[in-house]
Amino acid sequence: MTPAGGSTLVQFTPRPAGLHWYHTHAMAGHDLKLGLFTGQSGVLHVAAANDPGSYDQQQFIVLHDWEPYYSASGDGSLMVMYVCGSINGRMLGYDAPIQVRGGQRVLFHILNASATEPHWLSLPGHRFKVLALDGAPVATEASVETLRLGPAERVTALVTMDTPGVFVLGEPRDEFRNAGMGTVVEYAGRSSKPVAPRDVKLQWDYRAFADPKPVVRKPDVIMPLVFTSRFKGHGALDQWMINGKSWPTSEPILLREGLRHRLVFDNRSTDDHPIHLHRHNFELISVRGAALSGVHKDVVIVEAGTIVEADLVANNPGDTLFHCHQQDHMDSGFMALFRYS
Ligand SMILES: [Cu+2]
What we know:
Layout: E1 18-23, E2 41-46, E3 57-72, E4 78-87, E5 98-100, E6 105-112, E7 119-122, E8 128-133, E9 136-137, E10 143-144, E11 146-149, E12 154-160, E13 166-170, H1 174-178, E14 182-187, E15 221-230, E16 239-242, E17 253-255, E18 260-267, E19 273-277, E20 282-287, E21 290-291, E22 296-297, E23 299-302, E24 307-313, E25 320-324, H2 327-330, E26 335-340
Parallel strand pairs: 3-6, 5-14, 15-18, 17-26
Antiparallel strand pairs: 1-2, 3-4, 6-12, 7-11, 8-9, 8-10, 8-12, 13-14, 15-16, 18-24, 19-23, 19-25, 20-21, 20-22, 20-24, 25-26
């Protein structure tokens, strides 16, 4: 906690290398002017000590949604919507273009800092070669046309600039891009109206970045984590539960140091959730029943009505928060404490 008007000095050795971020963890509750809605966040990039990387320039891309308001969903419960969006704090058309040259390899460090919205990102005529997810190198550096990032997810991707022109790097969904979520990429010597993404297939599969053949791992402990919600009435936020309990009245969930815990994220709700674990990452073991290995993350979108299994090797003793990274969900009970026994 940093007191209002005060300061806190911290010192730490940054590890592991990769793309991280820092942000307020304050509760917002019903006040949409608090917590992650404020944009109180930033990128923390830890460069690898021994790997200079092979790229010609780096670009940091931060997605955020602004001016949140409540809207009633189909069943009458509240959901958060936004008036506008931005990349690096500016709406499309209000920032200087990213300048590139033909043949350059541009390393993009992308963060979705939205309080609640997953986002898609594409750059017409180009593909993203994904090197890392949530800062952790992937087993297979697959090239994809479109990226999907849930709140708090990060993607490190290399783009070879091999299609000269002027383009919008942005949300392929018109309503979000027209609300500001985009930025212009301009090749040297080119000037024309930027080409925006169109007819983009919204397709994303964590398995694309996995080992070609899944490595079978044996867990020491299996930990089911069932996500459910309770309708609290018209004009109210739903209440969220993990194994039937809501934060802050739930008991800590115990981990044993050194053991491989298989977390079974069982999403029995009709929403997708960006599930996040502090201080650790986990390896994806299965998504929708399909096995995988070699994808290490600290946020994973568990789609509505599906199960994701992920292995957590308990190697960093200390109290550890586990929560949905959607601000309105974590504020309404979707949080638990993992404690080393
Ligand atoms: Cu959630």
